[in-house]
Amino acid sequence: MTWMRWAPAMERALYDPGQGFYRRPEGPAGHFRTSVHASPRFARAVARLLLEVDEALGRPEELALVDMGAGRGELLTGVLAELPAEVLARLRPYGVEVADRPAGLPSTALWTDRPPRGVTGLLFANEWLDNVPLDAGEVDEDGVLRYVEVDTATGGTRLGEPVSAADAAWAGRWWPVAGPGDAVEFGGPRDAAWARAVARLERGLAVAVDYGHTAGRRPPFGTYAGFRDGREVAPVPDGSCDVTAHVALDSVAVPGLHSLWTTQREALRALGVSGGRPALALATSDPVGYLRALSGAGEGAELTDPGGLGAFGWLVQAVRMTEPVSLAGLPGWQTLGA
């Protein structure tokens, strides 16, 4: 039995060079379904967003697409397949991932374990932040906020040492706790990880997509979860399963940038993804086209389902550029204070 705080336990379970979950050859798609795997319409929407970013940036000589937490390159490959030749000629795609470069990735894509510096374009992080390790805390019977420790063999938990001043300050600002049993997940490491990634953009748009929450809607209990072989399992940090926790999307946002919080449902609908069924008349005039459109509608409905993938939060932040056309009409844009 090995007791550790959640952050180091997640770090080892997910990224250890010898046995980390994200080092395994089958990749994330072997264990859970994301928007990228659900439908090519997701990559098509990201491609449309990239084209709008390109236009807003004045069609730079070199345009970057940075895929944070790139898995096995599925999103990169899908987006590249949707772009016109003129844009591909200027595009520099990056897959940012700890695992080795996957076979079959387009030769133009660069594969790296950290985001590139000084690029102009779109930085897109689909379900990346929820895998950035973080600690949890709970208030004990005496009113002391202590770290939660986890048994890496069984997933059992217990209370450990009182939290640091930095984590106590983060909780006071973003996730206040009051009495015994109150729980918090300390988002400081995610805030720092996102700030480092966004700082690598010279100009462009940064988008983080994840299950998340904001002030006033914090989960009352822990959100740690595990996934293996296509189903949810106990979050045992032993390397055998994915271990995630929801993201405090308001604390993550980098101050000083024009920003939007919205849902995947609203973002994808603005980018042309719809779950609407095709007109029945098409079944008579073009049966094959009708079946294709019907399949696409089903995929669009899954991507925008408010009870499923459509409930993901989108944090969109503009770095020295105007809002992309499709998302500009969504309510909620604001410039965050420094």
Task: Pick out its properties.
8-stranded mixed sheet; 12 helices
In whole angstroms, the N-to-C terminal distance is 45 Å
Strand line-up of the largest beta sheet = 4-3-2-5-10-17-16-18
The number of helices is 12
| Spatial shape | globular
What does this structure look like?
The chain is α/β, with parallel strands linked by helices and 338 residues long. 30% of the residues lie in helices and 25% in strands. The chain has 12 helices and 18 strands. An 8-stranded mixed beta sheet has the order 4-3-2-5-10-17-16-18. Strands 1, 6, 7, 8 and 9 form a 5-stranded antiparallel beta sheet that branches. A hairpin with a 5-residue loop joins strand 6 and strand 7. Helix 3 packs across helix 4. The longest helix is centred in the first third of the chain and has 17 residues. The protein is globular, with a radius of gyration of 21 Å.
Summarize the structure in short.
The chain is of the alpha/beta class. The chain has helices at 6-15, 35-38, 40-56, 74-80, 85-88, 165-174, 188-199, 249-252, 264-270, 282-285, 287-303, 325-328, and strands spanning 3-5, 63-68, 91-96, 110-112, 119-126, 136-139, 145-151, 157-162, 183-185, 201-210, 212-213, 225-228, 231-233, 242-244, 247-248, 258-263, 313-319, 334-335. The termini are far apart.
Topology:
Blueprint: E1 3-5, H1 6-15, H2 35-38, H3 40-56, E2 63-68, H4 74-80, H5 85-88, E3 91-96, E4 110-112, E5 119-126, E6 136-139, E7 145-151, E8 157-162, H6 165-174, E9 183-185, H7 188-199, E10 201-210, E11 212-213, E12 225-228, E13 231-233, E14 242-244, E15 247-248, H8 249-252, E16 258-263, H9 264-270, H10 282-285, H11 287-303, E17 313-319, H12 325-328, E18 334-335
Helix pairs in contact: 3-4
